[in-house]
Amino acid sequence: MNRAVRYALLVVAAACTGARNDGVAFRPLAIGSPVPSYTARTLAGDSVHIGGAGEPTILNIWATWCTACREEMAALDSLKALYAPHGVRVIAVSVDDGSTERVRRFAESNHLAMTVAHDPSATIEQSYQIVGVPTTFVVGRDGKLVWRHTGNVTGMLPEVRSAIDKALR
Predict the structure, then answer these.
(1) Cβ atoms 93, 127 nearer than 8 A
(2) Are strands 115-118 and 89-94 parallel, antiparallel or unpaired?
(3) Can you give the C-alpha Rg of the chain in angstroms?
(4) What would the pLDDT profile of 58-110 be if each residue is shown by its tens digit?
């Protein structure tokens, strides 16, 4: 079963039963709670770490096969351009199965300036309790969750900017 079908089934299962398909109760990260520690390899070949005190971070979990994910990439890149001078990182973690090459081609063809990482084993999904992509988190300087949203953020940029401003405080 491909990942798109698994996501659809997980979303339905979570909505209907309040549990993930492994029987463990689904508990999304609570606003104000510390985000889990997570490290991924970027397309540039270095590592990026999320969790603990540090720069405010916009974290987006996405996949190349996801239409809403592809549609919001320009909006996320615009947030990088706007907030990078203030020390905010924008990190997009792809959960595509298989080779990094498909993710690299997508990032290059769309001229993405934000940091792009690839997590082919999708470990971030379990750590961050994700039931679908795209999912976006705003993490404050203190490593605590300020805001989260599942779905395309393009139409809600004022709300995202408000969360980023809060993360900068």
Answers:
(1) no
(2) parallel
(3) 15
(4) 999 999 999 999 999 999 999 999 999 999 999 999 999 999 999 999 999 99
Neighbours of 34 (CB within 10 A): 16
Length of the chain: 169
Q: What is the reported pTM?
A: 0.86
Per-residue burial over 135-169, b if 16 or more Cβ lie within 10 Å, else e, is: bbbbbbbebbbbbbbbebbeeebeebeebbeebee
Taking the C-alpha atoms of residue 92 and residue 108, their distance in angstroms, rounded to an integer, is: 14
CA 48 – CA 93 distance, rounded (Å): 10
Beta strands 135-139; 57-62: pairing state: antiparallel
Q: Per-residue pLDDT tens for 8-58?
A: 444 444 443 333 445 566 788 999 999 999 999 999 999 999 999 999 999
Amino acid in the structure at residue 49: H
Specify the pLDDT at position 26.
73
Rounded to an integer, what distance in angstroms lies between the CA atom of residue 3 and that of residue 134?
13
Widest Cα–Cα separation across the chain: 44
